[in-house]
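Narrative summary of target 7.
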Amino acid sequence: MSGALKRLLGLVLFAVCLFGGIAFPLQAHAGPPEAPTVAAPDLPHVSGSEPVVLPPTPASYEVQHLGWWTIEYPAAVRDRVRPLVENANQWKAGLVADFGQDVLTEPVLVRVGRTWEDMATLVPRELGVLPYAAGETYMPTRLVLLSLTEPVGGGATDLETTFHHELAHVALYDAVGGRHVPLWFNEGLAVHESGEHPVQRMKVLWDATLFRQLLPLGDLDRRFPMHQDDVSIAYAESADVVRFLLRGKDRLRFVSLIERVRDGAPFDHALADAYGTDVRKLEFQWREDCAKRNTFAPMLASGSFVWVLAFGAMVLGYRRRRRDAQATLARWEKEEQLEAKVAKPAVDDEAPFTDPARVLAGLPKIEHDGGWHTLH
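Modeled conformation, tokenized:
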């Protein structure tokens, strides 16, 4: 490695430490920029034993019956819901594979509202809709509500991701027969399956690991924290623990865990039987794995590292332009020297300083009596 490259690499690493140490804590407390972080999970609403009577479908809505699910939506937004129709079977197949059993076998009703206010009219008033939610799931009614706009900020909802998230809640409810699983497991599975905001989650998890802000899983059993920054960590952490449980070699254990919960075992006992560990040991193993993965690589996705790369590229560009300019100047100097050498007459040291013939040749001449005479 050349000395210049070593110096440049050292400069880049120094900038990483400088900018990373400043930027990452700010990002950790600022929350994801792309979309507002919800204040609490959107777990399925579980109603009592009394049957739920849904409001009638609005007259302006279209209804599509698609085998295991039905979707109702305003006729004018057909293009917005088309990706849901096209991908729902694929999402279901992925959930069946992860759970190792048929899920979503009973009909699921999906209702889409233009806004949060519209969405709230599509469910009985007594069930309610969370004020920050762009999607809701109601069990055992098997109703999924979606809003085309975010209730916070009014931006367009990522309808595919939101539907996939809610569908995962319904599928897990089916897989465990409605039995209790920890909140981190339920919400983490939905986030993992839908793949929402992967870069945001990676950055939040990196910050939380670096600054020792990871939350104990035991605190995320039945509720998430209320502070927005902690909620971001809770979502990112929960999804990553589920990813850890679903690693290639452990997929059969995951299926066994689900089956044991469905058969009536408490989650902790089912986890011990399927994975040979309890929640506390699982958390320790996951934290070790998290620390190994969240080293230098996640910084490649951070905004500060992008600026560092841009700075490094600028330095390289400057050095390259300076080198090219020096080469050009050297080339010009050689050309000027060559031109000067060609233009300068050769001097014979042994010849007299003045050549008379050359001097006479340069004097003016006149014609007289039929001959040419030099004036001198």
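Residues 12-40 have pLDDT under 50 and may be disordered.
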